[in-house]
Amino acid sequence: MAYAWAQAYEPKSPLMKWVDQRLPLPRLVYGTVGGGYPVPRNLSHMYNWGALSGFALIVQIITGIVLAFHYVPSSEGAFDSVERIMRDVNQGWLLRYLHMNGASFFFMVVYLHTFRGLYYGSYKAPREIVWMLGLVILLLMMATGFMGYVLPWGQMSFWGAKVITGLFSAIPLIGPTLQEWLLGGFAPDQAALNRFFGLHYLLPFIIFGVLILHVWALHIPGSSNPTGVEVKGPEDTLPFHPYYTAKDGFALGVFLLVFFAVVSFLPNYFGHVDNYIPANPLSTPSHIVPEWYFWPFYAILRAFTVDFILPAKLWGVLGMFAAIILLFFLPWLDSSPVRSGAYRPLFKMFFWILIADIALLGFVGGLPAEEPYVMLSQLATAYYFAHFLIILPLIPKFEKPLPLPSSISEAVLKGTTSKAAPAGIAAPGTPGVVHA
Amino acid sequence: MATVNHPTGSTAHDGAAAHAPSHVHVDGAPVDGAHEEAAAGDGHRRRDFINVAALSFLGVGTAVAIYPLINQMNPSADVLALASAEVDISRIEPGQAIKTVWRKQPVFIRNLTPQEIAAANKVDVGSLRDPQTLAERTKEGKQNWLVTMAVCTHLGCVPLGGSEGENKGEYNGYFCPCHGSHYDEAARIRKGPAPKNLEVPEFAFVSDTVIRIG
After folding, report:
1. A single GO CC term, please (chain B) (predicted)?
2. Within 10 A of A210 (CB to CB), how many other CB atoms are there?
């Protein structure tokens, strides 16, 4: 799709030729994740997170479908049905542990994927829509993850549902009515559980649809790369298959090792013991926190403690949503013409401060709302917004970027005496090879 | 696999690089072109081992991953726990039948009268669609206790004839209202589309008045 020198699809068997002429699906696959998609040759392992995210989505969809075979979306039966999955359903314990830890690992790889995009400036032109579609996926994931956590109908499920829908009650005038509409009642009960189950089953497929758009938009300019220098010719690229299928396959192996280590030996590490207590509308757990992947946002929510024109509660909700909505404007907030953080000394420093700031937000988000954590969350929240709204737009005015390589192949081959060329691919500068 | 071939083979543009051992690590995975080159030698390259091992691992891993996804649909432990049922038969008078439940399926337990036993034994077994004697379908010395699934062997409906006043069919046994299968006193198929006699489940007498099905 992206480059003129992309290998055209040639069916190897008469059957594939027959199919390709009628439905060019083999051609689409070949051009998307096969030999027909030229990819910058210098992608590091930081570029594996996207493929791993796609894998994690598929794991969640498959394990989720089979869990739905056994789950009962009823306020009376949900908790027991989950326990039945754990004890009686064949390998049900495995499927549930895969699904609940799969959610954590999905967020983990997606956050790393996002941080990679932030560092290497993957959000910049011409990939703004790729970035924004990714944020849409992140928002959909958050909604899906939240509703999935409600389904076991334990104490954390119930009170999570109550607190999160309570956010909407902060909206002036319509707030309380809106919350009742969302829940189908005055508190989470059968109506809420049933619609959460329906949506939790639906949203992953919507995510899959947006993922297709995300990959489609990516394949128009082609993948970014650690130098941030655009591909100039065939010497800058390698076919996706077998080079990046192998690289992603290796990353997948490492990912599965860590994933199964947790699923096998620490299956409840990311959970909360309170969720093994059936939902009780009359008693709130003493310390109620969301899943770890919401902690930074939860910290921002709780950081607003003073009424200022608007009530503090509303400021918290606005702040939390703004923290993500802000990222949609990132391509225009960062005006530096240099894409990759690797060549931006000042940006690089502030990037790592931002990561530390988000880690701090995550840390205090998981702790009780008491001092000094409230103050820390306020400072960290202030810095988070300052980074995107003040520091990032100002950096290009003071920064002196490092010299960029003139091409990817030059950056890769700099300092090497041999002109390394993969088998079957001509080395750059080789006589007889015409460069585009 | 014994000999080492250079992956870039004869088409390498840079002779020095092609013969440097480290080149093997630089070049990454084989592509089609490399295969063609290898064919010119003895057909094997060291890297083929990694390919075969990785793909084998992928295959085995996929099979292992599919197993729980398939097996979760099998009857679960709590369903299998229903696998046997004990029934008190002391209050079933000769000529009466009851319908009970085993594995969520109906079961007929019938106390045959001497006349019914005689009628069932008079039939020429060779003429039956599913040849079985009454003795083969009951326990020794307890020929009057006929225990069968109340599930028609045609398409699974519950036949009539287990309760007072129900249609017992033309052979004084059971009659399936769905597609008109007639069973006789020993619940053997005599007329209609069903291929087999009503199934006799595995059962045993725990005592003279209690049986355990399953």
Report:
1. plasma membrane
2. 15
Section A239-253 average pLDDT: 93
Q: How far is CA A60 from the centre of its chain?
A: 14
Tell me, what's the pLDDT at A168? 87
* CATH number, residue B178: 2.102.10.10
Name the residue range of residue B179's domain: 79-213
Number of domains in chain B: 2
Q: How far is CA A18 from CA A33, A176, A215, A435, B165, in A?
A: 21, 60, 27, 34, 65
Q: Are B136 and B152 in contact (CB under 8 A)?
A: no
d(CA A358, CA A350) in angstroms, rounded, equals 12
Q: How far is it, in rounded angstroms, from Cα A345 to Cα A337?
A: 14
The pLDDT of residue B15 is above 50: no
Is residue A264 annotated as part of the catalytic site, yes or no? no
The SS3 of residue B78 is: helix
pLDDT at A306: 86
CA distance A266 to A271: 10
User: How far apart (Å, rounded) are the C-alpha atoms in residues B134 and B137?
Assistant: 5
Residue A223 among the catalytic residues: yes
In terms of Cα–Cα distance, which of B141, B144, B159, B143 is closest to B199? B159
| B78 contacts chain A (CB < 8 A) | yes
Q: Are residues B41 and B130 in the same domain?
A: no
Could you tell me if B147 and B211 are in contact, meaning their C-beta atoms sit under 8 angstroms apart? yes
In a shared domain, residues B134 and B173: yes
Q: Is B179 annotated as catalytic?
A: yes
Q: Measured between CB atoms, does A239 come within 8 Å of chain B?
A: yes
d(CA A163, CA A169): 10
* DSSP classification of residue A345: H
Domains of chain A and CATH, by start: 31-229+237-267 (1.20.810.10), 291-399 (1.10.287)
B89 and B159 co-located in one domain: yes
In this structure, is residue B2 part of a structural domain? no
> What residues of A are designated binding site for heme b?
99, 113, 200, 214
SS3 A37: coil
Q: Does A427 touch chain B (CB under 8 A)?
A: yes
Q: Looking at residues A46-62, what average pLDDT do you find?
A: 97
List the structure tokens of A410.
């030059």
pLDDT digits (tens, 9 = 90+) for A368-388: 888 889 999 999 999 999 999
Regarding whether B146 and B47 lie in a shared domain, the answer is: no
Q: What is the ipTM of this complex?
A: 0.80
In the set A235, A236, A241, A248, the catalytic residue is A248
* Backbone φ, ψ for residue B90 (5° rounding): -65, -25
**At residue A333, does pLDDT exceed 80?**
yes
Same domain, B22 and B93: no
B20 lies in a domain? yes
Contacts of residue A138, defined as CB under 8 A and 6 or more positions apart, other chains included, come to: A110, A114, A324
Instruction: For A60-74, write each residue's pLDDT tens digit.
Output: 999 999 999 999 999
Among B71, B87, B116, the domain boundary falls at B71
The identity of residue A305, as a single letter, is T
Residue B117 pLDDT level (bands cut at 50, 70, 90) = very high
